[in-house]
Amino acid sequence: MKQNNLSFFQSVTSFFDKAAELTDHPKGLLDQIKYCDSCYWFKFPLRNDDGSIEMIQGFRVEHSHHKLPVKGGIRYSELVTEDEVKALAALMTYKCAVVDVPFGGAKGGVKIEPRRYTSTQLERITRRYTTELAKKEFIGPGVDVPAPDYGTSSREMAWMLDTYVTLNPAQLDAAACVTGKPIAQGGIHGRTEATGRGVYFGLVRAMSYAEDMKKLGLTPGVEGKRIVIQGLGNVGYHAAKFLQESGALIVAVAEYDGAIYNPKGLDVDAVQRHRREAGSILNFPGSKNFAKNSDALEYECDVLVPAALEAQITAENAVRIKAKIIGEAANGPTTAEAEDILSQKGIMVVPDIYINAGGVTVSYFEWLKNLSHVRFGRMSKRFEESSHRKLLDAIEKTTGRSLSSDERLAAMHGADEPDLVDSGLEETMYNSYDAIRESMLVTKGCRDLRTAAFMNAINKVAVSYAQLGIFP
Ligand code: NAD
Questions:
Q1: DSSP reduced 3-state for 69
Q2: Is position 333 within any domain?
Q3: Which domain holds residue 128?
Q4: Is 107 assigned a catalytic role?
């Protein structure tokens, strides 16, 4: 998608260049980091039930091989272009570096509108797409590991896994060839909600700094804050749900076919139910419809969470945005031109390469689980519970006070997979935010979180190249 004068990839590279100016790496190394290492463009036929044949276009871009495997989602959308996949692959490199996930960046795309295909057709497309990737070694646990993205889910990942295993029957670690799989196929608890949960943790951390919030005219904490969500898909729905559970008000929601608002707050699950039954979020009881879906972006709120597609906040509408914070749940929702306007307006942008990294973080945990062939917590849960029980017995004996059965159960609980995944995600999102904020504060000339995040990412990738002996 063209972002005003810059393409999406050019917009990403302009963010890169701004941050690179604050580093002292040589131009050759910066170019090596910035541009895509491999770009695979291909087409394949889909035979429809009526016998007709349709040509399908697929892409896989591996942006950076400084660490292997490379990692990145597969997008199904009729808007997919080579430029978009390159931009998204580049963002993956920087994102993995920001949250210390040891992968290079990649992205895949199939240029289709999934709503127009039956599930049988989508299965055929997915299996053939996977076969094309396998033919060129653009998929495999040690080389390139896809995941879900816009328009795909665990269902597509299960088809990809099955196709890969069929082609590589003797490969012990084959399950690690994709992440975001169903649990029964080697997936991990918490992956489905991971990106939205990470957005939630990112906002909680960003909004915990009283001095930063004061500058925006806000009190610390997410409780009571008015939030607008654009895109009630996987990421948007989960981000909205966790924010609402923490006491935030979801005052407006936008979808591709319209947007609704209620200054007193919308119940996210009820909106989802209404959408399933009525086929649209529009006319949700107790809410009002906006004239156009893009009006939601300009609605009065504290936090705007774009969770749909890129280039939603542009030079054209940035001037009318009223949010004080933008949490970029989607990839590339703000164009480089819009960024300057937002910055002049004093809006705090929590950048995509940090705030939507929850998905790849938990994908990393899933990949580790697949390589180790054991569920997190399996070896330790009972041992921890037995140790906790002994400790509680000793405390009760010494103090003479007995805990209630609820207190005992809570204190005894040993960590299982969902607990460990959530804890690892929270740790990652909090630490990474602190690192970005610190870089922003200590680096002369760095005034925003995006530049700081890019700077941290560039430095980390540069260190990897130095360790490979490629650059001094
Ligand atoms: P999804 O397909 O589950 O949901 C996207 C939603 O946005 C859909 O409900 C769609 O109808 C809606 N939408 C489309 N156009 C819109 C418009 N113009 N206005 C309002 N809503 C619109 O996709 P997702 O996985 O939630 O991904 C959303 C964004 O988050 C993408 O930019 C993706 O790259 C990014 N992301 C996703 C993940 C992940 O784990 N799924 C990880 C990181 C980043």
A1: coil
A2: yes
A3: 38-185
A4: yes
